[in-house]
């Protein structure tokens, strides 16, 4: 029986040391949290609700406008579910830019794991548990994004609150553009 993508990616992450809470690992593919659509694959209705709640967490605490559907010109961050041993909650495959979540997770554990892996996709590294409580603590299943997590996100991307409505078209006399 072949090993799952989640287990393979998680094993690779452990081998390169991103699971040590060190915070200095380089993430190859990152997504701008101001301009990305989170696309779920291989998911049940309950899993889609969990991902939606994780997206809502980031939107509420960081003022983002992440969406599960949207403009066709925005990049798609794929989040898919896969079979894995219970020790693997989720992993962000930063070489392919894909999030894998353990198919067995549900409820709050699913929501927090998805929020954690979204953090990796936005460029956030693990935060050692002894340093502070964070959604980015390794093996975290309970801590939602904190104000420190938002500050870390904004340090990378700035304040990326998107307007509720698209900006007005520039007039023909507009010198800039």
Question: Can you describe what's shown?
Answer:
The chain has four helices and four strands, in the order αβαβββαα. Residues 10-23 and 164-177 have low confidence and may be disordered. The termini are far apart. Strand 3 (90-93) and strand 4 form a beta hairpin. The radius of gyration is 17 Å and the shape is globular. Helix 2 (45-62) packs across helix 3 (107-121). The relative contact order is 0.19. The protein has helices spanning 5-16, 45-62, 107-121, 147-157; strands at 37-41, 76-82, 90-93, 98-102. It is α/β, with parallel strands linked by helices and 177 residues long. The chain has a single domain, classed as 3-Layer(aba) Sandwich (Collagenase (Catalytic Domain)), CATH 3.40.390.10.
């Amino acid at each position: 029986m072949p090993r799952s993508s989640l287990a393979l990616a998680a094993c690779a992450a452990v081998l390169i040391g991103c699971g040590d809470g060190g915070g200095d690992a380089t993430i190859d593919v990152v997504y701008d949290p101001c301009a990305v659509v989170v696309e779920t694959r291989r998911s049940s209705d309950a899993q889609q609700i969990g991902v939606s709640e994780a997206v809502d967490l980031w939107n509420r605490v960081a003022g983002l406008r992440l969406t599960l559907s949207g403009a066709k010109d925005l990049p798609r961050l794929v989040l898919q579910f896969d079979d894995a041993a219970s020790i693997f909650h989720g992993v962000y495959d930063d070489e392919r830019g894909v999030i894998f979540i353990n198919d067995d997770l549900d409820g709050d554990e699913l929501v927090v794991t998805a929020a954690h892996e979204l953090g990796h996709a936005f460029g956030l590294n693990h935060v050692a548990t002894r340093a502070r409580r964070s959604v980015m603590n390794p093996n975290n299943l309970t801590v939602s994004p904190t104000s420190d997590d938002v500050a870390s996100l904004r340090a990378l991307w700035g304040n990326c609150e998107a307007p509720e409505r698209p900006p007005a078209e520039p007039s023909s006399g507009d010198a800039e553009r």
